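During the no-cost extension, the postdoctoral fellow (Dr. R.K.) reprocessed legacy sequence entries with the updated structure-token encoder. One reprocessed record is reproduced below for audit purposes.
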Amino acid sequence: MTHEPNTRLAPEERAGNVERILEQLDIGVREALIRHKQAGNPVAVWRNGRVEWTEPEEIPIDEHGAWNQDR
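Re-encoded structure tokens follow.
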């Protein structure tokens, strides 16, 4: 994770911060996609009602973590 947890808040207060939760999920997914792409590993995605493999060269993210809108 890139951010330290805010331990001053009670767990129910942290869990209620939906905006931060979604932000951290986005960061985690982005980091995982970058690592998979750099390592040459495919990723599983849910598409057309089933799990499909996406080859590393088809992962729509660049080495800086930006989504490639052309894909």
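The longest helix spans residues 18-39. Strands lie at 43-47, 50-54. The remaining legacy entries will be reprocessed before the final report is submitted.
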